[in-house]
Design a protein that fits this description.
Layout (H helix, E strand, L loop, with lengths): L1 H6 L2 E6 L2 E7 H6 L1 H7 L4
Amino acid sequence: AKLALQAAHRGYVMESGLITMEGQAQQMLDDPRVKAAYLGEG
């Protein structure tokens, strides 16, 4: 996920087939919820 966001302009989080979060890739990388759930940080 981290490599994909580093290469992308925008990022999306899907849960149960629904987009639950979206934004600029750097904002997604900085988001503590994304870090904890998908990037293994925090």
